[in-house]
């Protein structure tokens, strides 16, 4: 069956590279090559599932890969949804610097136009936040961003936003299922060459410039003697827009990591283009050492996430990468002070419980959401929201998604304010512990090659949760997929007698099982509180590792 499906796919594939690759694989399989048969089965006995995160997967031929046929089918199905939903629908399409992103984006825009959706294509590879901004700025019905964010180099993806009442947020159920149903109908009944193409408008640079102005507007005043900042775009598309925003805000130019400044879909200097991965920040640290920098700021390749590192002479290499929760709490405290009790703060269920403590101390509403900014962005009266995976929504009036550039501006503003007072982000974390308690977090991840292992591991832990971890009894083991626990996602939450918390969930974008560990201490000095919480997190991480095997 796989060979038959592969031949049918080959007949409609418009991409010469994947067509040649598939033709060779079919020929090898027909001659009895077992490896070729297995590769075809892997690519054709299944299909990348369209969901709230859109599509994401490895490049290659077949319905279980990212390619021009799959993108065309997804686009025709999404177009059918938009045409049924609105009288005169419109869409804006963006793309990053990954392999084939520009090709996929042009296909998306042309097929949308051919289906009766007025299509505008951004003029160059740009950050995901610019596309999310453009949906609202242009008053579009929808947006598509071709990106796989921080996934491995051979991946690409298709991210969907809706305008109108959705205000440029990512899609949520049941919309994802409605679109998926139409995509499957297209795949069953239509070939790519039968899909009409239409004329596409190319946006001017005014869209990006409008984003730059809106983002620069949330900056504070640069210090008289500002900190020296090193920046890396990690081979992604952030550099040009970040430079423009920093200049418009009046801050001095950053020292850039030259080897990582330009878009390169091969990501030659990193094993994984994700600031969270070990070694990914090493070039930035080396550049910072040479520049005697005070701060390191790194975006992921599509610039919707931000990593921050501060000098730490006691650490190997002399730098400490702040966790997503540390940055999230600093930005949350900053937002709460500016809000003067108005509006709401929000964080995903796997993020630090510290933001709720901050919100309550400032008389603000607080919302815990399911994972993903599609939920965080929809919190009523939102002032600020974050997720521990280096994602922050600091400017909901401009972008209803995580935004690594606007969050960079707020971190830079905070760092400048502190620098002017002879302080730093590291000092501010100590002040936060003095005010609210010492919060610490950690994460254990298991990356797999066989994705079927992921649900099996999570299901096993739900069925037989541990009774104790690192010397503390597990007093509750809650399956958060169940209605009585909010049906918030496929997450197992373990609550410990000492107040610590452990969450286990499958990653929504990568072949990983993720474990999130949080602890808090309110005893002793601020530094003692932080140290006690960190020691507790480290012990719990060690306790969880063998449970994932």
From TrEMBL:
Cofactor(s) listed: Mg(2+)
Domain of life: Bacteria
Alpha-D-phosphohexomutase C-terminal domain mapped to chain residues: 480-523
Descriptive protein name: Phospho-sugar mutase
Keywords: Isomerase, Magnesium, Metal-binding, Phosphoprotein
Entry-linked Pfam families: PGM_PMM_I (PF02878), PGM_PMM_II (PF02879), PGM_PMM_III (PF02880), PGM_PMM_IV (PF00408)
Gene3D superfamilies in alphabetical order: Alpha-D-Glucose-1,6-Bisphosphate, subunit A, domain 3, Alpha-D-phosphohexomutase, C-terminal domain
Coiled coil: none
CDD domains: PGM2
Family per similarity comment: Belongs to the phosphohexose mutase family.
Domain Alpha-D-phosphohexomutase alpha/beta/alpha: 48-186, 224-309, 324-429
């Amino acid at each position: 069956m796989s060979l038959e499906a592969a031949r049918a796919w080959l007949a409609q594939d418009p991409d010469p590279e994947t067509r040649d690759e598939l033709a060779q694989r079919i020929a090898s399989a027909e001659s009895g090559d077992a490896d070729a048969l297995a590769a075809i089965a892997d690519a054709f006995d299944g299909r990348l599932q369209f969901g709230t995160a859109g599509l994401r997967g490895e490049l290659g031929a077949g319905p279980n890969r990212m390619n021009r046929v799959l993108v065309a089918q997804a686009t025709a199905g999404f177009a059918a949804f938009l045409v049924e939903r609105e009288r005169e629908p419109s869409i804006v399409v963006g793309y990053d610097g990954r392999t084939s992103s520009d090709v996929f984006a042009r296909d998306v825009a042309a097929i949308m136009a051919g289906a009766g959706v007025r299509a505008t294509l951004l003029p160059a590879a740009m950050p995901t936040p610019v596309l999310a901004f453009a949906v609202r700025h242009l008053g579009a019905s929808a947006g598509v961003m071709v990106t796989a964010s921080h996934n491995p180099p051979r991946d690409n993806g298709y991210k969907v936003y809706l305008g109108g009442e959705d205000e440029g947020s990512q899609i949520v159920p049941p919309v994802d299922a409605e679109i998926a149903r139409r995509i499957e109908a297209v795949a069953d009944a239509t070939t790519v060459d039968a899909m009409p193409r239409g004329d596409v408008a190319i946006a001017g640079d005014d869209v990006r410039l409008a984003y730059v102005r809106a983002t620069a507007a949330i900056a504070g005043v640069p210090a008289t003697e500002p900190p020296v900042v090193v920046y890396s775009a990690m081979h992604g598309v952030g550099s040009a827009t970040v430079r423009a925003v920093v200049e418009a805000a009046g801050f001095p130019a950053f020292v850039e990591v030259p080897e990582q400044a330009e878009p390169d879909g091969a990501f030659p200097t990193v094993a994984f283009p994700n600031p969270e991965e070990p070694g990914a920040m090493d070039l930035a640290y080396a550049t910072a050492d040479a520049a005697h920098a005070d701060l390191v700021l790194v975006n992921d390749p599509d610039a919707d996430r931000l990593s921050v590192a501060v000098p730490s002479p006691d650490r190997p290499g002399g730098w400490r990468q702040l966790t997503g929760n540390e940055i999230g709490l600093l930005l949350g405290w900053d937002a709460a002070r500016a809000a003067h009790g108005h509006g709401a703060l929000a964080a995903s269920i796997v993020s630090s419980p510290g933001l709720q403590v901050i919100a309550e101390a400032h008389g603000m509403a607080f919302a815990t959401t399911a994972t993903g900014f599609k939920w965080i962005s929809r919190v009523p009266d939102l002032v600020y929201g974050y997720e521990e995976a280096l994602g922050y929504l600091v400017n909901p009036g401009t972008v209803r998604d995580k935004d690594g550039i606007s969050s960079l501006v707020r971190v830079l503003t905070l760092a400048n304010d502190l620098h002017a007072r002879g302080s730093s982000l590291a000092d501010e974390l100590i002040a936060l512990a003095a005010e609210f308690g010492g919060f610490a977090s950690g994460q254990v991840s298991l990356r797999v090659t066989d994705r079927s292992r992921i649900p099996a591991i999570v299901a096993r832990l739900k069925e037989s949760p541990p009774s104790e971890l690192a010397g503390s009894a597990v007093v509750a083991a809650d399956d958060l997929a169940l209605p009585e626990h909010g049906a918030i996602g496929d997450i197992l939450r373990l609550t410990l007698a000492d107040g610590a918390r452990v969450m286990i969930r499958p990653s929504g974008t990568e072949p990983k099982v993720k474990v999130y560990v949080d602890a808090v201490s309110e005893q002793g000095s601020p530094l003692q509180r932080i140290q006690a919480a960190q020691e507790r997190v480290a012990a719990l991480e060690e306790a969880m590792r063998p449970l994932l095997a």
